[in-house]
Write a structure and sequence with these properties.
Low-confidence stretches: none
CATH superfamily of the largest domain: SPOUT methyltransferase, trefoil knot domain
Shape: elongated
Number of domains: 2
Helix content: 25-40%
Largest sheet: 5 strands, parallel
CATH class of the largest domain: Alpha Beta
Number of helices: 7
Distance between the termini: 33 Å
Order of helices and strands: EHEEEHEHEHEHHEEH
């Protein structure tokens, strides 16, 4: 998979995109991540990428020209499956969407900033809009990192044990069951005996029952 991220703050990606699983996925050649600074695509000497909103009002708006020029330049060399705009009023990101997007070969992530982007970007250049929650961030960079991480870990070969991703919360519309590790007894608190029994079938049944119970208690909406 190739992920191109368009941003006005490229430095924000220096740490997260070069650590842990994301770093190893790139070292293995499973993922290519390219960060594109929007300012070189500006149409004026000041390299500005934002301007005042027509009609007045507080806040600045990201201009269409730099965004269009950047996307056009990228599309000259590649065909993209999705061009995704990260925005608070987009479609809510779910595990199902992540599963679907992880099958794509090339995607572009556009990070909004200020009061957002010129609406014509959304009308003519974007194929999908996604939100990571009902709240507002300073920009779409953190949301792009979240989406990239969620997709990359689903790519075959990225995780050492690929079955790990299949048992995560939300994969089967359930929250994950409780997990334990050594020691078996700590401070008088025991690991459930069933998990130490070695009976795989009974352990799987126990985990499923606890997953359903936890989902009913914490996220009953998922069971609908």
């Amino acid at each position: 998979m190739r992920i191109d991220i368009i941003t006005c703050l490229p430095e924000l990606f220096d740490g997260p995109m070069n650590q842990s699983i994301i770093k190893r996925s790139q070292q293995k050649g499973l993922v290519d991540i390219f960060i594109h600074d929007l300012r070189p695509y500006s149409v004026n000497k000041q390299k500005s990428i934002d301007d005042y909103a027509y009609g007045g009002g507080a806040g600045m708006v990201m201009m269409i020209e730099p965004i269009d020029r950047c996307i056009t330049a990228l599309k000259q060399n590649l065909s993209y499956d999705e061009i995704i705009y990260l925005t608070p009023d987009g479609e809510g990101l779910t595990q199902g969407i992540c599963n679907q997007l992880s099958l794509n070969k090339n995607i572009i992530l556009l990070c909004g900033h200020y009061k957002g982007v010129d609406e014509r970007v959304r009308e003519h250049l974007i194929t999908r809009e996604l939100s990571i929650g009902d709240y507002v961030l300073s920009g779409g960079e953190l949301a792009a990192m979240v989406l990239a991480d969620a997709l990359i870990r689903l790519i075959p070969g990225v995780l050492n044990d690929e079955s790990s991703a299949l048992t995560d919360s939300f994969q089967d519309s359930l929250l994950a069951p409780p997990v334990y590790t050594r020691p078996a007894i700590y401070n008088g608190w025991d690991v459930p005996a069933i998990l130490q029994s070695g009976n795989e079938a009974k352990i799987n049944d126990w985990r499923y029952e606890l997953a359903v119970k936890r989902t009913k208690e914490r996220r009953p909406d998922l069971l609908k």
